[in-house]
From TrEMBL:
The encoding gene: ackA
Quaternary assembly: Homodimer.
Protein name, as recorded: Acetate kinase
Binding site for ATP: K22, H211, L212, G213, N214, G215, D286, C287, R288, G334, I335, G336, E337, N338
Pfam (any one): Acetate_kinase
One Gene Ontology biological process: acetate metabolic process
Organism of this sequence: Pseudoalteromonas porphyrae
Top EC category: transferase
Length: 404
C-alpha cells in the first residue's frame, strides 16, 4: 500500500454493511478524527445515526425503512452544517471482497465497479452494501475522487498451496472458489507499526498477527507479506469468533439437512450468527460479558474462553510451517487489544515456540494500549498493537487522490 502523502488533507471514510454504515472524516496526515459515527438498523422500523463531533455525542433518528441513501444524505447535511466539506479531498470506501482482481487500493471508475460487482457474487451481503455505499457517495460527492480499499488485497501474495481448497480445480478456475482472507488492512497496519516498534524493517520481519474483534483472523506475515491467513472464501473460516463457528467438518451440512431438516439459510444463520462464543457460552457474543461470567465460575463461559484460546493457539502454531522463524506475535482488535486474560492464555500454550508472557506488562497494556508484553527471557516477542483500519483507508485514498 502507498506511503503517507505530504499534505494534510481530510478524507471521508465509509464502511457500508448490510444494515449499517460506519463513517469518519480523518486527517490523512495526522490520523486526527474530525467526525465519526454509525448509521445502524438501516432499512428497519427504527434507523438511527449516532455520531461524535468535537467530543460531543449526538444522534439523529431517520424515518422508518430509510436505508443507506438516506443515511448518506443525512451525513452530507451534517458535513455541510459543520462546514467540513471544504477540506475534503477524497472518499475512501472499505470494500470487503476484491476477489483476485484487486491487489491494492484503486480509484473507482466504471471498470472498478464491474470488478467489485463480480467479486460481490462471492460475498453477496457485504458486496451489495459496498456497491450501494459507492453509488450513494458518488451521487452526493460528485467532485470528489472515490477510492476502494479492499479487505482481501493484502492477502493476494498468498501462494496456491495456501489459497486453494482441495476441491475439483474447476471450481477455482470457473467460479473463483478459493481462500481470499479478510481484515487485510488491519493485518497490514499492525505489522508495519510493530516493525517500527521493534525497530526492524518490515521487509525482514516475520510476524503472526491475531485480529480478534467480533470477527477474528490470524495472518502469517513473512518478510512483510501475507503468506497465509485463517479466513477463506468468506469470513466464516478459521478461528472461533463472537457468533461465527470458524472451522467445522463440512460433513455437518449433510447431517443438518438430512437429520434435522435444516435449509441452506438456516445453516448459514447457525454458523454465522448463533455459534462461536455465543453458541458455547449460551450467554453472549461479547468477550467482556463472558470473562465476567467465567470469573464468577460459569462453566460454559470458562469453556467458551478455553476453546477460543486453544483454537487460536493451534492456528498460530500451524502458521510456523510457512514462517519457520517468528519475530513477534501481534494482538489487535477489541479482544486482542483489551483482553489480558485471552493474551495470557494463548501465550501460555505457545511456550514451545519461545513465547513467554510478562504478566505485569500484559496487565499494564490495559492502560498503555500498546507495547511489548513478552518477558525479557522470551525468544519471540508478544506485542499489543491497536489497529486503525480507517486511517489506512484514509492514507490510501489521500495518496491515490493526489496522484490523479
Ligand atoms: P468489530 O470486529 O465489530 O470491529 P471490535 O474490534 O470492537 O469489534 O471487538 C469487539 C470485541 O472486543 C467484543 O467481543 C468485546 O467484548 C471485546 N472487548 C472490548 N473491550 C474488551 C475488554 N476490556 N476486555 C475483553 N474484551 C473486550
Amino acid at each position: 500500500m502507498p506511503s503517507q502523502p505530504a499534505l494534510p488533507r481530510h478524507v471521508l471514510v465509509l464502511n457500508c454493511g448490510s444494515s449499517s454504515l460506519k463513517f469518519a472524516i480523518l486527517d490523512a496526515l495526522t490520523s486526527e478524527e474530525i467526525i465519526s459515527g454509525l448509521a445502524e438498523r438501516l432499512g428497519s422500523s427504527t434507523p438511527l445515526i449516532k455520531y461524535k463531533y468535537q467530543g460531543v455525542k449526538k444522534q439523529i433518528e431517520l424515518e422508518a425503512n430509510q436505508a443507506h441513501g438516506a443515511a448518506i444524505d443525512t451525513l452530507v447535511a451534517l458535513i455541510n452544517d459543520h462546514h467540513l466539506a471544504d477540506h475534503l479531498i477524497a472518499v475512501g470506501h472499505r470494500v470487503v471482497h476484491g476477489g483476485e482482481h484487486f491487489t491494492q487500493s484503486v480509484l473507482i471508475d466504471d471498470d472498478v465497479i464491474k470488478g467489485i460487482t463480480q467479486a460481490a457474487t462471492l460475498a453477496p451481503l457485504h458486496g451489495h452494501a459496498n456497491l450501494l455505499g459507492i453509488s450513494s457517495a458518488q451521487a452526493s460527492f460528485k467532485g470528489l475522487p472515490q477510492i476502494a480499499v479492499f479487505d482481501t488485497a493484502f492477502h493476494q501474495t498468498m501462494e496456491k498451496t495456501a489459497y486453494l481448497y482441495a476441491l475439483p480445480y474447476k471450481l477455482y478456475t470457473d467460479y473463483g472458489v478459493r481462500r481470499y482472507g479478510f481484515h487485510g488492512t488491519s493485518h497490514f497496519y499492525v505489522a508495519e507499526q510493530t516493525a517500527k516498534l521493534l525497530n526492524q524493517s518490515i521487509e525482514h520481519s516475520n510476524f503472526i498477527s491475531a485480529h480478534l474483534g467480533n470477527g477474528c483472523s490470524v495472518c502469517a506475515i513473512k518478510n512483510g507479506k501475507s503468506v497465509d491467513t485463517s479466513m477463506g472464501l468468506t469470513p466464516l473460516e478459521g478461528l472461533m469468533m463472537g457468533t461465527r463457528s470458524g472451522d467445522i467438518d463440512p460433513g455437518l451440512f449433510n447431517f443438518l439437512t438430512t437429520q434435522l431438516d435444516y435449509s441452506a439459510q438456516q445453516i448459514d444463520d447457525l454458523l454465522n450468527k448463533q455459534s462461536g462464543l455465543l453458541g458455547i457460552s449460551e450467554l453472549s457474543n461479547d468477550c467482556r460479558t463472558i470473562e465476567e461470567a467465567a470469573v464468577a465460575g460459569n462453566e460454559k463461559a470458562i469453556l467458551a474462553l478455553d476453546m477460543f484460546c486453544y483454537r487460536l493457539a493451534k492456528q498460530i502454531a500451524a502458521f510456523m510451517v510457512p514462517l519457520q522463524r517468528l519475530d513477534a506475535l501481534i494482538f489487535t482488535g477489541g479482544i486482542g487489544e483489551n483482553s489480558d486474560i485471552i493474551r495470557a492464555k494463548v501465550i501460555a500454550q505457545l511456550s514451545f515456540l519461545g513465547l513467554d508472557c510478562d504478566n505485569t506488562a500484559n496487565l499494564a497494556a490495559r492502560f498503555s494500549k500498546q507495547g511489548i508484553i513478552s518477558s525479557t527471557a522470551a525468544n519471540v516477542k508478544a506485542v499489543v498493537m491497536p489497529t486503525n483500519e480507517e486511517w489506512v483507508i484514509a492514507l490510501d485514498a489521500a495518496t491515490i487522490a493526489q496522484e490523479h
